[in-house]
Amino acid sequence: MKAIRYHDHGDADVLTVDDVPTPEPGADEVLVRIHAASVNPIDTYVRDGGVEPAGGLPHVGGADMAGVVEAVGSGVEGFAVGDRVFATGLGLFEAGTYAEYVAAPAESLATLPDEVSFAEGAAAAMAFATAWRGLIDRGELDIGDACVVQGGTGGVGHAAVQIAAQAGATVVATASGDEAFVRDLGAADVVDYGADDVVDRIREAAGGDVDVVLETHAAANVATDLDVLTRGGRIVVLGEEAPIRIDPGASMTGKITDADLRFMSIMASRDDQVPILERVGPRLADGRFEVEIEATYPLEEAAEAQRHVMSSGSRGKVVLEVA
Ligand SMILES: NC(=O)c1ccc[n+]([C@@H]2O[C@H](COP(=O)([O-])OP(=O)(O)OC[C@H]3O[C@@H](n4cnc5c(N)ncnc54)[C@H](OP(=O)(O)O)[C@@H]3O)[C@@H](O)[C@H]2O)c1
């Protein structure tokens, strides 16, 4: 089969199109014929060497996919040849999804409804699972809460705006552009994250202090988040490749009052992923959720697709068409 691998860590140029044996599913695995994969920032962090994939190099990158079951391992129940499935969180503990086939743990797979295209399924998987887990499970978002989504135009951000709005929160999103796109997803207001008066503008838009922040760029924004947070509010940090600086002295002066900084990983929370994806699928099918696909590339152009994702000004998701 064709697979996009890297033999050394480095920038997108290390990605190569290789012919490799089609994997055999283990007892607890399902062989999936991949129709679409999507591209996430984590794919580039693993490629860079910031995170070491289990199994070492060479490595097939990619965490998200949608496709059709081709074969099932001897111990697998609940999946049959021909089933449509989607998944996220692959490509760190096993081979990834930039390939024609993947042998995926059965416990990582969710059913992809017939109404949802493979491209939509692959695009939605990590974005919606991360946003859902971040807001609802880690952020404990409640009806009537005020919520900030930092980076509302991005893959996770545009999913988060929809989830938070449908959960009954007042959503203030930040973005560097395309306000109309984010408002149409359900944001009550959109604030430029680079504005000098970003704290005042978030408070004004939220009608006061904020209960939950979903933070996609903590290194840049955590001071703002702490400033706008209500007492006992939650900041859910999604992680990026930069350290964050916090002044703990502010916790003694009343500026930061019982602020709760929480972290999460969708890659390392397989138990939580599938129940979320099983609820995301039907919502994509009936139109309650929409996944924005900004660009599609053929599998062979994975390097270009990764450059696209890491460029500024993109909106929604980038998808690799595999078959
Ligand atoms: N913990 C987890 O399990 C998990 C899972 C998925 C993603 N993540 C992390 O979450 C982040 C977002 O992922 P993604 O897939 O949504 O990426 P993405 O599609 O590339 O979106 C990034 C978004 O962030 C915006 N942005 C850039 N600088 C910003 C700033 N200083 N403040 C606020 N927003 C800013 C961008 O807007 P402009 O382009 O307009 O600047 C863009 O909308 C990444 O750091 C990723 O690693 C974590």
Automatic annotation (TrEMBL):
GO MF term (any one): oxidoreductase activity, acting on the CH-OH group of donors, NAD or NADP as acceptor
GO biological process entries: small molecule metabolic process
Lyase keyword on record: no
Signal sequence interval, chain numbering: none
SMART domains from the UniProt entry: PKS_ER
Alphabetized InterPro entries for the sequence: ADH-like_N, ER, GroES-like_sf, NAD(P)-bd_dom_sf, Zinc-ADH_QOR/CCCR
Domain Enoyl reductase (ER) intervals: 10-320
Name used for this protein in its record: NADPH:quinone reductase
Source organism per UniProt: Haloplanus rubicundus
Classification lineage: Archaea, Methanobacteriati, Methanobacteriota, Stenosarchaea group, Halobacteria
